[in-house]
Amino acid sequence: MSLHSKLSDKSTRFTESVIRGMTQLCLQHNAINLSQGTPAYQPPDEVKYAAIEAIQEGYNQYSITWGAPDFRNAIAQKMTIFNNIPTDPTKNVTVTCGSTEGMLSSLLAIINPGDEVIIFEPFYENYGPDTIISGAKPVYVPLRESQAVNGIMQFSYDSSELRDAFSANTKAIIINTPNNPLGKVFTVDELQEIADLCCEFDSIAITDEIYEHMIYDDKPHISLGSFPEMKDRTITVSGLSKTYSMTGWRLGYVVAPDLLTDAIRKMHDFLTVGAPHPLQRAGIAALNLPPSYYEELVIKYDKNRKQLLNTLTESGFSCFSPEGAYYIMTDISNFGFPDDTTFAHWLVKEIGVGGVPGSSFYSRSEFGKSKFRFMFSLSKDKLDQAGDRLMQIKSKI
Ligand code: PLP
Asked: N or C: which end of the chain has fewer CB within 10 A?
């Protein structure tokens, strides 16, 4: 019997994550891994103790499927104050197993066959499989790069291309700000343009704001859901993974208007039942950390950003200087490799550093074959070592 014939069509339409594959390759060759977006840091001690306490106090069974009440209260307070989105914990919040599940539950809650979803490209890898699983038709809008000046590139969309992407079939647009892989932070004018189009075409915005606390050079984080006209048509997805260095805890959440929340909660319930209850309790301690926690986080990441940006430009890469998140997208054309995957393997084996081939962030691999992404959530030691290795590139090609 051929088991191939038993597979669902959907399961054959996407592959294993390229990023996890690069991590395996780094392990095999003892390379420094600048590919996977796993923070190098630990959650604050008081948050870890809160998790231990919650287990000892008996929070070991299911919580309410859409989230423990006190955790939802803390999320609603944070959303109202930090994101400027008035949020009712009883009606607008769904706690999910990471923002990954939050995004998928949101799409499952709104997509019907034939619905289109606009995605800016390059995009976070998961959005491709998310559209396949939910049955949405992706419509890609390129974030185009300008000529590099002093080794630094810029990325923005073309307004007419964005308008052309919208149609009567546009159910939603996904906006990721700060963005992975570029580190682009959408400006207020760009968000206003997106808001206007959503209203004109009666579409929903789904925003992925997982890097909302990692923005550099004093730029503010702006949530599209805070625009008055977007109040009833925005689904905001975020989580605790990156801000509190707890990707393994799987705590995410979705904030949406009442009616959409009802549908998202149903999808979430039958996908996962709920996020880990004791960790939700500790999540309250995380969300209650003082402002200084967030200030120190940005200072720490900004140091890494500047260090890696220097190393990469000196090693011959053209770079997009990230305004947020912890990735640097580069152009590798200067090095003369046929494509990004060949470069990725060479870099791991000959230089001892891992990154992500740019093609994994594009709908068609040829769009990303001159691109390569590095991440900079690393200890100072590792970043120094990676820097020493990267500086050898020029002498080895
Ligand atoms: N969204 C973006 C843009 C990401 O880069 C990542 C992780 O790399 C996620 C979501 C996943 O977050 P979570 O751990 O909350 O599922």
From this structure: N
